[in-house]
Design goal:
Layout (H helix, E strand, L loop, with lengths): L1 H6 L3 H24 L1 H15 L5 H12 L5 H21 L13 E4 L1 H10 L4 E4 L6 H10 L3 E4 L6 H12 L5 E2 L3 H13 L3 E5 L9 E4 L2 E4 L3 H9 L3 E9 L3 E6 L11 H22 L13 H5 L7 H4 L1
Parallel strand pairs: 1-9, 2-5, 2-8, 3-4, 3-5
Antiparallel strand pairs: 6-7, 8-9
Helix pairs in contact: 2-3, 2-8, 3-5, 10-11
Length: 316
């Protein structure tokens, strides 16, 4: 709980956390006051203006150079700016996610029959996706489908802000779960044993994971989804989200990934990790503006191997 976390830190840190939480609460209140479309437009405008001026813009450009080495630098810069707008929209929309559910009419669902089959089977599956468009809409679709599912997330460093995030998701029925260490893993296993599915993001850097290929370059990816699917003899159900005009979205339940059990567990896990990583790459190639380009996805050696920056933005 926030109070318990606060007792482990200095008074100064706790004060900073409380001020940040107050600012965050004020932002949430303002976005809810102005409404969904205005909030989305405002968030997109702010980050489109400010994002390119931050040091993180260099990471965005470098990521785009790795993923699309043959792309014209000017086109790459346009894409980098456009993804900032998408990120800003998503951040602002989180304040009003209870207005972005399937019942709102703003989410088109493709593959709903797959979700219904999972619900009817009462057998747990492992949902996977990447940070594309507004991933909260995927969670909203899963909740509306009636599939019992634990949506995992990385808890915010600020415990007071984290409590607000959890409360915001609860407004539209999402139960967030932040697994930590062995206890968290045991809770996930226990949930799946009860028949609950789990939803995991699988497109961030994970230094201890098996090395697979992403956009032609090596990356380390989390083995958790593959391990869970193999342990419970179930499918990996990939999902994607695409942003449409007018603060609308398309959420798709794609063909399931069925992992083979050859008797070589480590090889089977790696094959699953590669299949999931390839799925995410395919979705990013289809709609690159929707992906969250601001994190460092590849190992340091891949960035170090880049040629000298061809543009002012990359050399900033």
């Amino acid at each position: 709980m926030p109070g318990e976390d606060a007792r482990r830190v200095s008074f100064r840190q706790d004060l900073i956390w409380r001020l940040e939480a107050a600012a965050f609460a004020g932002f949430i209140g303002l976005m809810r006051l102005i409404g969904l479309e205005a909030a989305s437009n405002f968030g997109g405008w702010v980050l489109r203006k400010l994002g390119p001026k931050t040091g993180t813009h260099r990471t965005v450009i470098r990521n785009l150079r790795i993923a699309f080495p043959d792309m014209d630098p000017e086109e790459r810069e346009r894409l980098a700016i456009a993804q900032w707008e998408q990120t800003g929209r998503t951040f602002a929309e989180t304040a009003v996610m209870d207005q972005l559910t399937p019942a709102s009419g703003r989410i088109d669902i493709v593959g709903a029959d797959r979700l219904e089959a999972i619900r009817a089977s009462r057998k747990p599956v492992v949902f996977v996706s990447g940070h594309m468009a507004n991933i909260e809409t995927m969670a909203a679709v899963l909740v509306a489908s009636g599939v019992p599912v634990q949506v995992t997330y990385r808890a915010a460093n600020n415990p007071y802000v984290d409590r607000q995030i959890v409360a915001a998701r609860a407004r539209y029925g999402v139960r967030l779960f932040a697994p930590k260490g062995g206890d968290g893993a045991r809770e996930l296993l226990a949930g799946m044993a009860r028949g609950e599915s789990v939803a995991l993001m699988n497109d961030q850097k994970f230094s201890e994971g098996p090395e697979v290929i992403f956009f032609g370059q090596p990356v380390n990816a989390a083995p958790g989804p593959s391990r869970l699917a193999l342990r419970f003899g179930t499918i990996v159900q990939p999902m994607s989200v695409v942003r449409l005009p007018g603060v609308r979205f398309r959420v798709t339940a794609h063909a399931p990934i069925e992992l083979e059990q050859t008797g070589d567990r480590q090889a089977d896990i790696k094959a699953g990790v590669q299949a999931i990583t390839s799925f995410i790459e395919d979705r990013v190639r289809e709609n690159p503006v929707d992906w969250f380009w601001v994190h460092k996805r590849w190992p340091d050696r891949v960035y170090a191997a880049l040629d000298p920056a061809p543009s002012a933005a990359d050399s900033a």
